[in-house]
Amino acid sequence: MQAGRINQVHLHYSRPAGGEAPQRSSDAGPVDWESQVLVDPQDLIHVEEIVGGLASAIESPTTPAITVSGAGGVGKTAVTHAAVKRVVAGGRFTHVVWASAKNVRFSSGDVGQAAVDSIYWHDLLRMVCEQLGCPLPPSQSLWEGELRRWFADELRGARVLVVVDNLEFVHSAQRVIARLRDLGVRQPHKVVATTRWRVTEEFDVRDFGIRPLARAGTYDLVRLLAAGSTSDLQSAGDDDLAPIFDITEGNPFLVKLITRRFVVTGRSLDRILAEVGAAGEHELGGRVRTWLFDRSLDQLRESTSEQEAVNLLFSFCIGGRGGSLRYDDLRSETAAADDDRFDHILEVGCRLGIIRPSDHNRRYSIHSLLYQYTCPLAWSSATAG
């Protein structure tokens, strides 16, 4: 396996045994884009505004590229899928491609293995070419040129929408969008990428941030998921469901995981919440931590340093679960070398969704589960008291 860089972003170039890639038959026909979407069938709630806005932006000829950003589990893929389906129904594009940068997904139903944290560039190219019906030569070194020719000749007059899902690396969305543009995916075509890293540098890339559900929306989702089962969650009152919001803070992935586990296993809600919150003591909690936080925490360390990342997270242990810190207090606790360095560390944390600003960017907090994983002694002391 060879590793290449695109402006500091690792793109791994996979090569099958023997050094040659399989050639796709030109008469095999294009692959249906919806068969490539890694998302559980679901009813979406409280996202009509963001889905409608995203669909309008995809259809707009003045928006050449779009990113859909947000923390792990907030529903970036589901929202993007809903918007793309709406656009496809309107006939705006002649071809649609959906390529996932992850080849394994974490299922909220069976709590399987965490996804692979790599972007395989040639795998991505293969998915794009297969869905466009573009035949690939045996040598991977020729794939980019063939796709560029395909756009210039075979897709002349077409309108292609390319969605690249699950770009987890820092800056990977910008770099992959730029690389695809170089291959011909530019107006009238369009690129949409989902990513945890919010894009701000590129003035011609529009970002849609996905936020967690509010308290009322969380309760609605729990009741919707429990509907039709024998579980009493479908008719539970707000007070009964409050602990679910307190630990999930409206993250749809966590809400679904907890609700489905309650419905299927027959375990008490208190026990399930304890399993989710115990990253070091319970397998479920460890896998939740891996899926929601570990990739972003790795990126925080790589973009700052090991010690700076640790200092930033441990600073929140003094505030208590669900608490927040003022800028000056957080600056003091992190012991950064100077104000410019601290601002850089804080910006990286915010853009990765690890640190959440509030009160007009005067106070900062972390997710309550991340607090439990980071500050186990503080959490144990608080719950014991």
UniProtKB/TrEMBL annotation:
Residues 1-30 are annotated as: Disordered. One of its GO terms (molecular function) is ADP binding. SUPFAM superfamilies: P-loop containing nucleoside triphosphate hydrolases. InterPro entries: P-loop_NTPase. This is Uncharacterized protein. It comes from Actinokineospora bangkokensis.
